[in-house]
Amino acid sequence: MSHPLYIAFIWHQHQPLYKSPGSGVSLSSSQQYRLPWVRLHGTKDYLDLVLLLERYPKLHQTVNLVPSLILQLEDYIAGTAFDPYLTASLTPDEQLTQQQREFIIQHFFDANHHTLIDPHPRYAELYQQRQDKGQAWCLANWELPDYGDLLAWHNLAWIDPLFWDDPEIAAWLKQGRNFTLSDRQRIYSKQREILSRIIPQHRKMQEAGQLEVTTTPYTHPILPLLADTNSGRVAVPNMTLPKQRFQWAEDIPRHLRKAWDLYKDRFGQIPRGLWPSEQSVSPAILLDIINQGYKWICSDEAVLGWTLKHLFHRDGAGNVEQPELLYRPYRLQTAEGDLSIVFRDHRLSDLIGFTYGAMPAKKAAADLVGHLQAIAKKQRDSHSEQPWLVTIALDGENCWEFYSQDGKPFLEALYQSLSDEPHLKLVTVSEFLEEFPATATIPGGQLHSGSWVDGSFTTWIGDPAKNRAWDYLTEARIMLASHPEATEENNPEAWEALYAAEGSDWFWWFGAGHSSNQDAIFDRLFREHLFGIYKALNEPIPPYLKQPVEIHAAQANHTPQGFIHPVIDGKGDEQDWDKAGRIEIGGARGTMHNSSVIQRLWYGVDHLNFYLRLDFKSGAAPGRDLPTELNLLWFYPEKTMVNSPIPLADVPDAAPLNYHFHHLLEVNLLTQSIQFREAGDNHQWHPRFSRAQVAINSCLELAVPWADLQVPPDYPLRLILVLADEGRFSNYLPENALIPIEVP
Prior knowledge:
By secondary structure, the protein is an alpha/beta fold. The protein has 25 helices and 24 strands. The strands form five sheets. Strands 16, 17, 18, 19, 22, 23 and 24 form a seven-stranded antiparallel sheet that branches. Strands 1, 3, 5, 10 and 11 form a five-stranded parallel sheet that branches. A five-stranded mixed sheet has the order 6-7-9-8-12, sandwiched between helices. The longest helix has 22 residues, at 361-382.
């Protein structure tokens, strides 16, 4: 019997606790929120995703709703949640304080401008004024209608395009300018109306059988680290750990029970699936999950790879080799019973999360369907008696900000193709497990301790700032334990503050690896939750909690912090490159000093391209201030292949210039033309076709497709940039180093 290829989409909807704990008793009380993302993502991302799916009844999916998100949505629906953005939006124009005006100019463009600002002419006009003339100019020259319009557009732009046919919303979009306080009050009412439909719609579709709704530990903590921070050393044996070992496994069943009870109340049934926060698992957490009654969990292919001691390789098209190992559920065996687990295809999930937004919608949808059809063919060719299940699991909110119309054209094209394709069948995870229970087994003790990020916990522990935060949390947890009279029943404030502080998001933003312009607010919120524990116990707040966990200064040199998708126009859009790696060239370092015409180098990747940007000194011109030729040379460490030396005169005989390289892209900085070459025998270089894009305006921007380099995923390569004039070596960068790149 031949099976279709079964596919389980799991969308993870999560926001951390943005509410400051000082102004209410429990998570459901009226409180001041520090950030607006529950409200804004609520109007843009949670309802439309399932409403779109409902139009394609053959397609079944799973959506994970984190309890801390649900509780905050309910605050906004009730009208008891206020964040600084909302407060400003509901303030009469003439009553805006100087501080509020500065805040509005600085923060009311917090959005991807390509997709959320540029499509709206008035919003784009205000954005360009701030970008071109600066915040000080806006503060000095804007009049009340400018502020009124910006306040309105910041809220309007986050309303999903699926709702633009609503007569009121359509009228506001058409109006464009001269928004009044009354308009903004009605926009806020519309936001609350959309938010109020989210949970009922999920419940309705689950009861109809098209959707499975799952949950996550209460405030999204990393359960293995609550059990024991030493679990960080399973994947990274030499990890530097916090000074104090956090071992409070007793908090795990509390988070699981609170999630279970809240789910039962909101959805009228018990949950079957659990999304462990950040897909983090370990042997230590399994018994509590089983004892609470959950039937299945999900994690990442990296965790499966570590568990099986098998490295998942991919072919040149990016498809998994030995797919039968990944595309099946497993049964985790423990003394208390068994628990099913599915492992997501990391690459397919990342393509949706980080790459398809940069492609035309139909082309992106066709690419994903093509990957699934290739897997279905492998399944048929294998003559497997067991059906395969491809799990695609990812963040269900943040990626759409990078898609045209919030992903609506992409999802419509994808869902139509999947509805028409007879060999592909979308299912909920529980549906699949009920029909095809897991037959492959993994002893519970053999399960790897890790997350979706490289199969490790380095995103949340091991860095000095992250470790400091764990030490602060440990001290507060010890303080709570020293008050046995403070139970959840008679002192809920202390426990709610603890649960909030145990959430994963604070540790995500501390230290190296991730950064945003709101790092300081996350730092403050984490410490406020710890304050809440001490206040509720009538204990003095430790002085160190009144200081930031870390200094939130702008970083100079750093490695890439995520995928990027810059528009190649030579303008160096700040949002396009905010997650790129950065190397300072001018300045106090090295022999190039601040006389360097090239000031800094930016680099990054997505699944389609390698990207490079060079910032020049103001007014610098090729042929006058800097050489006319830029050569990119790729070096492949520890790989056997034909390589050739740099084909320029006067190249110094010193590393890394005397290395031999495999690919060469020469950019003529005067004509913006390119020549691509590949190394051949006898130190020759042979011309090859290239689809690389280059643009020079205020800076140089370059995109080189991975297809040009013909290297498979997960391949390490190194890059050097060499400047030349008429074939004669001039200089190179970065100094005494190669740029390390990993093909995603």
